[in-house]
Amino acid sequence: MRIEDLPPRLQAQVRAQLANAARPAGCPISGSEAASTPTPAPVVDRGTRGQREPNKTESDYRATYLRGLDARFEAVTFRMANGHRYTPDWVVFTDGRPSQCHECKGGYALGSQQRARLAFDQVRVEFPGLVWVWAVKVRGQWEISGQ
């Protein structure tokens, strides 16, 4: 769907929101230019809207392995070719860009863990320029793979 296909009132609202949207750090174009320029980027910065807090397992992982790094909880969502999205638990930024993605799970194998592993493996294939880490806490010890 194109903006031009919308009624004039909605066109004005969409253009106003696009013009006022915060642009990512380092983006060379302004909000009004962004409204007319298609963005093929597969990564979406989630900003501060709708974020939740890390649970105990995720907090423990950060305290153990990501201390001193610019690690942000659920900071980036990846859009995959199959239409699915994947948001890693922790994204480590180096020089303002994502460099590592960490997924941490507890020892209980829930049904959602298998789906998360499939999505993790798929996103690793589609975005090979990043370091992907899968960590599972079993009996108080972290089992880490994928580095």
Mind explaining what this structure looks like?
- This protein is α+β, with helices and mostly antiparallel strands and 147 residues long.
- The chain has helices at 8-20, 31-36, 56-65, 111-126, and strands at 43-45, 70-73, 76-79, 85-86, 90-94, 97-105, 131-138, 141-145.
- The protein has 2 domains: 3-36, no CATH class; 43-145, Trna Endonuclease, Chain: A, domain 1 (3-Layer(aba) Sandwich), CATH 3.40.1350.
- The chain has 4 helices and 8 strands; from the N terminus they run ααβαβββββαββ.
Could you give a short description of this structure?
By secondary structure, the protein is of the alpha+beta class. Helices cover 31% and strands 27% of the residues.
Helix content: 25-40%
Largest sheet: 5 strands, mixed
Spatial sequence of strands, sheet with the most strands: 2-5-6-7-8
Shape: elongated
What is the name of the CATH topology of the largest domain? Trna Endonuclease, Chain: A, domain 1
Number of strands: 8
Average pLDDT metric? 80
Q: What structural category do the secondary elements indicate?
A: alpha+beta
- Reported CATH architecture of the largest domain: 3-Layer(aba) Sandwich
Number of helices: 4
**Terminal Cα span:** 40 Å
SSE sequence, one letter per element: HHEHEEEEEHEE
Rg, rounded, reads 18 Å
User: Strand content of the residues, in percent?
Assistant: 25-35%
| CATH top level label of the largest domain | Alpha Beta
